[in-house]
Design goal:
By secondary structure, the chain is an alpha/beta fold. The chain folds into two domains: 173 residues, FAD/NAD(P)-binding domain, CATH 3.50.50; 138 residues, 2-Layer Sandwich (D-Amino Acid Oxidase, Chain A, domain 2), CATH 3.30.9.10. The strands form three sheets. It has an eight-stranded mixed sheet. Strand 1, helix 1 and strand 2 form a beta-alpha-beta unit. Helix 1 packs parallel to helix 9 and helix 3 crosses helix 6. It is globular, with a radius of gyration of 21 Å. It starts with a strand and ends in a 7-residue tail after the last helix.
């Protein structure tokens, strides 16, 4: 079988390595830090684009396919590693939605259950939400996963596979080339030869390709988030038990009662420094939805870098004019959302299998022609 070298140890890189190894391939995965510690760790874990009816069909198709895989993926990882990714399918409450007609058209087209709900319904589901909420939309099938634990489970799974070698704390300095074909990579620990390289470097993917003179329009967009520690509530309930979304910000409950608030959107290049301005903005958004959070401890405040591509559509496929070099990057806010389907599409192409969906909308050759350097986002 083929040998592969995967650059990047986020969920995209780790799922790619898992699928390749499970198909009988030998894989070396190179990560500049520890696997699962960048954007994959920093996100929230909602298994859907925030407002799914507002996305283009290429993103929507990946999301639909990925959503169908998550329950089985979490169960398989739990059995294989003993690590619970905390997959939960408790639904999502949308508050203050101003394009409900579009949402219902989307839901009817896909057979997604979506309904208008009143204040009684909202506060029956979530008693401690703000009292002035009078209506919203309810999607009962939406799920979430605890992304740091998913990353832990994927890493543990990779470490158990004989055909996978993890090279962590290793920075890739450049790609080695010979007459239009990739031959390996130069790293801080020397050269690693390879004739099949899959670049899954998130926001850093464009930097590495730029050293070859290739402009990949993927840039970092900073997102800041916070985590609240909440007390036990009457009746054995948690302060929040379902995902709630209002005005572009969301609250996500964890199984241990913690509540996460996200997130900001900031174009700050590769700066991941949390700021006091964002901290207060997130706190106020959280309290506006769930007033009791005003008295809860802020346990953690952090930032991550999303890899933004034009229209939020990732680049998936072979890099033009370089044999043996492939890329899967540019998922923007939906890396975790799209990962199972995005990596399956990539691996189908790598192994010459019939793809489960049309690869054309994501193909780098086609996309890079559409978005020349002058159109960098």
């Amino acid at each position: 079988m083929k040998d592969f070298l995967v650059i990047g140890g986020g969920v995209i890189g780790m799922m790619t390595a898992c699928q390749l190894a499970e198909a009988g391939c030998s894989v070396v995965l190179v990560e500049r830090g520890r696997c699962g510690q960048e954007a994959s760790w920093a996100g929230g874990g909602i298994i859907s684009p925030l407002y799914p009816w507002r996305y283009s069909e290429p993103v929507s198709e990946l999301a639909r396919n990925a959503e169908e895989e998550y329950a089985a993926l979490a169960a398989e990882l739990l059995e294989a590693t003993g690590i619970d990714s905390e997959y939960r399918q408790k639904g999502l409450l949308y508050l203050r939605v101003d394009d409900g007609d579009r949402a219902f058209d989307w839901g009817r087209g896909l057979g997604k259950p979506l309904e208008v709900v009143n204040a009684d319904f909202i506060h029956d589901k979530e008693p401690w939400l703000a009292g002035e909420l009078t209506s919203g939309l309810w999607m009962p099938t939406l799920g979430s996963i605890r992304n740091p634990r998913l990353c832990q489970a994927l890493r543990a799974r990779l470490m158990s596979l004989e055909r996978v070698r993890l090279e962590e704390e290793v920075s890739v300095e450049s790609l080695r080339m010979d007459r239009g074909r990739v031959t390996g990579i130069e790293t801080t620990r020397g050269c690693l030869p390879a004739d099949q390289v899959v670049l899954c470097g998130g926001a850093w993917s464009g930097v590495l390709l730029g050293r070859l003179g290739i402009t990949l329009p993927v840039k970092p967009v900073k997102g800041q988030m916070m985590l609240f520690r909440t007390p036990p509530m009457p009746g054995g309930r948690m302060l929040l038990e379902r995902v709630v979304l209002a005005d572009g910000r969301y609250l996500i409950p964890r199984a241990d009662g913690r509540v996460l608030i996200g997130s900001t959107l900031e174009e700050m290049d590769f700066d991941k420094t949390p700021t006091e301005v964002a901290r207060e903005s997130l706190r106020q958004s959280a309290i506006a939805m769930l007033p009791a959070l005003a008295d809860c401890e802020i346990e953690h405040h952090w930032a991550g870098l999303r890899p933004a591509a034009p229209d939020g559509i990732p680049f998936i496929g072979e890099v033009p004019d370089i044999q043996g070099l492939f890329v899967n990057a540019g998922h923007y806010r939906n890396g975790l959302v799209l990962a199972p389907a995005s990596t399956r599409l990539m691996v189908d192409g790598l192994l010459g299998r019939q793809p489960s969906m049309d690869p054309a909308p994501y193909a780098p050759r086609h996309r890079l022609e559409e978005h020349p350097q002058s159109e960098l986002i």
